[in-house]
Amino acid sequence: MTLPPPATPDPTPEALLRTHPALHEDARRGLKLEGVALAEIAAQVGTPCWVIGAQTLRQRARALKAAFGDAGLKPSFHFAVKAQDHQATLTLLRQEGFGGDVVSGGELQRCLRAGMDPQALVYSGVGKTDDELRLALREGIGQINVESPEELARLNALALELGLRAPVALRVNPDVDAGTHDKITTGRAEDKFGIAAPEIIALYRQACETMPGIEMRGLAVHLGSQILTEAPYRQGYQRLAELVTQLRTEGLAVHTLDCGGGLGIAYRDEQAPEPARLARVIADILGPLEVELKIEPGRWLVGPAGVLVSRVIGTRAASEAAQALGSPDFVILDAGMNDLLRPALYEAWHGLLPVAPARGAESDWQEVDVVGPICESSDVFARNRRLPPLEQGDLVALLDAGAYGSVMSSTYNTRPFCAQVMVDGDQWRVIRPRQTLEELLAVESVPEWLAEQA
Ligand SMILES: Cc1ncc(COP(=O)(O)O)c(C=O)c1O
Ligand SMILES: N[C@@H](CCCC[NH3+])C(=O)O
Fold first, then answer.
1. Catalytic positions (predicted)?
2. Is 180 in the pocket of ligand 1 (CB under 6 A)?
3. Using a 6 Å cutoff on CB, does residue 404 contact ligand 2?
4. Helix (H, G, I), strand (E, B) or coil at 402
5. CATH code for 13-53+303-442?
6. Ligand 2 site, residue 64, Cβ cutoff 6 A
7. Which of 88, 169, 249, 381 is most deeply buried (CB count within 10 A of its CB)?
8. What are the phi and psi torsion angles at 31 (to 5°)?
9. What is the DSSP letter of 312?
10. Candidates 146, 222, 263, 267: which one to mutate for ligand 1, based on the most atoms within 8 Å of Cβ?
11. By C-alpha distance, which of 176, 160, 169 is closest to 203?
């Protein structure tokens, strides 16, 4: 399913500020993330620049844990590292009691470097190589979510080779449509993720009876990302509960259920379910099974904690003749789809706020297309967005860039990776300097047979 274009008018800056409590407007210093003026960061670090709020991360981590506690649950929390993999973020979340949900040997090693206990790590993903599985086993990972019969057999052989047992959950594909964007739904039969529910019982039994390298712990499910309703969760967990009952009836032990992540956030005016609602759904459906529960949140934790600060390179107003042909007015930013890919990849809507305090009279506001400098027509951050007049040099903040932002950036068009900053209340630090062109080019070499003759 591709999401239809929004039917409601875009939220005003005031509405965006209300729904984004990490951001504040300071009449003198302009937009702030937590206690730090974004203009101050931009002046010192340059643009584009990712900024993430540590206080906001802590608050969200605590709110999420409290929501499950209030529902009478004590799951273990595994941050989906793919959403934001910076060492500072992982360190902070480890301090808040989070482990990691990883999908590669690289993410696994990131978590270990950030001091996470290997036992607090869950490894998911459809394509784990032998080397990655060996690494996970040697490090003593807490759980591997196996996504195919072939992977299970391979993991069994690798574990035996190492003289170890692999703690495993089978990832179920429950054939549930999460109702999110087509490209980020993962639980339908046609999606590549997980093992079809009708295959689970036989495979589970086979592992328990014939695979000594596998320690079968339970089941896992993850339906997709940016999920905005409760219904798919109910359906998915119901299927999981049915499978648990069936397994137990057949005398097979189930110790753990991994509930996945996927909780959506309000980028625009979406009514995303609160974590408390997800916790209640889980408590209702999986609570009575008396198993250890795991939760793998990504976007909900980090998305609203981050912004991408960018500067207007220039503007291009359409002449009357061009307007008649359908040409919009453009505001061209120094951030591009190579930095924040989500709008180009998923037609995702991101809030956009000018950083400067004064916005002028509303009658001066204009409808513009906000674009990046990349040579792709999809390099568009916002279409027909009503904004205060923006000029060359003005700063803007793209909101909700904390999840699937910096991690998905590339150096397309030879644009070095942006700087990253962490704010914590009133203090801030550069946590990754802007990549220089020299650094970007230093890793390239020209084969000697191409070398010019002197
Ligand atoms: C297995 C798994 N768990 C958790 C997540 C986290 O999802 P989200 O960031 O939507 O919470 C993902 C990503 O969709 C995932 O693939
Ligand atoms: N990259 C996606 C989310 C994918 C989640 C990974 N399973 C996004 O930006 O919305």
1. 375
2. no
3. yes
4. coil
5. 2.40.37.10
6. no
7. 381
8. -65, 135
9. E
10. 222
11. 169
Average pLDDT, the chain: 96
Contact 266, 272 (CB under 8 A): yes
- pLDDT digit string, tens, across residues 63-113: 999 999 999 999 999 999 999 999 999 999 999 999 999 999 999 999 999
Number of H helices, E strands in the chain: 14, 21
Structure confidence by residue, pLDDT tens digits, 39-55 = 999 999 999 999 999 99
Let me know: does 218 contact 180? Beta carbons within 8 Å: no
Give dist(CA 407, CA 341) in Å, integer: 10
Q: Domain residue spans in the chain?
A: 13-53+303-442, 72-297
**Taking Cα atoms as reference points, which of 359, 358, 385, 354 lies closest to residue 370?**
385
Residue 197 is classified by DSSP as H
Ligand 1 pocket check for 53: Cβ under 6 Å: no
Strands of 62-163, DSSP E: 76-80, 99-102, 121-123, 143-146
For the CA of 181, the nearest atom of ligand 2: 10
User: Whose Cα sits closest to atom 4 in ligand 1?
Assistant: 261
d(CA 104, CA 453): 43
Helix (H) or strand (E) holding 152: helix 149-162
CA trace torsion 110, 116, 117, 122 (10° rounding):
-60
**DSSP 8-state symbol, 34:** T
Nearest CA to ligand 2 atom 9: 404
pLDDT for 451: 84
Is 262 assigned a ligand-binding role in the annotation? yes
Contacts of 425 (CB under 8 A, 6+ apart): 34, 35, 54, 55
**What are the backbone dihedrals phi and psi of residue 263, each rounded to the nearest 5 degrees, phi first?**
-60, 130
346 is in an annotated binding site: yes
Which residues, including other chains, have CB under 8 Å from residue 248's CB and lie 6 or more apart? 254
Q: Determine whether 111 is an active site residue.
A: no
Place of tokens 């609570």: 287
Look up residue 315 and give its two tokens: 């503007």
